[in-house]
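Need residues for this backbone.
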């Protein structure tokens, strides 16, 4: 138990330092999504819709996500989509991705503790700028520039939906290398990019096409709140 608590405390310090650094030095990385703004960009709306619609209301853990995951297990024979954004932040900051009950339990505990120490906005900002979105793409700002040649705050609804869809389906290396050497960069329409990738990564393209359709529903979805806290 003592070893577990020491590890927990060490991980908590690591995550807090990482989130604080992202918040304090975002200007250094040229982040275009404003941390202290109450305006919500197309990209942020799409990410919240796809990844964690109740992010601003739960405290790091969602019973509903467990129920949804169990429903998928019964219907599809696989379990996924159980983690909140807070729990994914723990994974990114600590670099622990192994699949085990102990790791998941520690992840949930740390996610709940983080909500006592840091604002939801700073947590969300860390997530969107540090998640792995594809080959040489860490965070939405890098992905937006490398794929569309635009800042994250400049994406239209279709482009934002595409970038948000990369969180579970990172941009493949083979597609990226072909794309930047094709002379087509930057394509403005995500559908053209998906069509371009069909012969290179057909499985990824098919899943992205489906994911993109779901993401577009975000702009008509009535969130309980998107206000920054």
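Answer:
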């Amino acid at each position: 138990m003592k070893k577990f608590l020491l590890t927990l405390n060490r991980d908590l310090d690591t995550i807090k330092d990482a989130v604080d650094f992202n918040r304090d030095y975002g200007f250094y990385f040229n982040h275009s999504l404003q941390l202290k703004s109450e305006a919500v960009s197309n990209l942020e709306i799409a990410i919240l819709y796809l990844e964690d619609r109740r992010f601003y209301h739960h405290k790091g853990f969602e019973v509903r996500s467990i129920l949804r995951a169990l429903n998928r297990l019964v219907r599809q024979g696989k379990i996924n989509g159980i983690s909140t954004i807070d729990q994914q932040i723990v994974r990114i900051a600590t670099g622990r991705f192994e699949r085990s009950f102990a790791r998941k339990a520690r992840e949930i505990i740390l996610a709940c503790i983080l909500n006592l120490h840091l604002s939801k906005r700073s947590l969300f900002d860390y997530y969107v700028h540090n998640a792995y979105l594809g080959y040489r793409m860490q965070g939405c700002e890098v992905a937006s520039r490398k794929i569309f040649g635009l800042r994250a705050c400049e994406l239209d609804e279709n482009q934002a939906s595409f970038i948000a869809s990369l969180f579970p389906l990172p941009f493949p290396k083979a597609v990226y290398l072909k794309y930047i050497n094709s002379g087509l960069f930057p394509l403005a329409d995500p559908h053209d990019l998906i069509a371009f990738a069909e012969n290179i990564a057909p499985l990824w393209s098919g899943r992205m096409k489906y994911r993109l359709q779901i993401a577009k529903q975000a702009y008509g979805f009535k969130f309980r709140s998107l206000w920054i806290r």
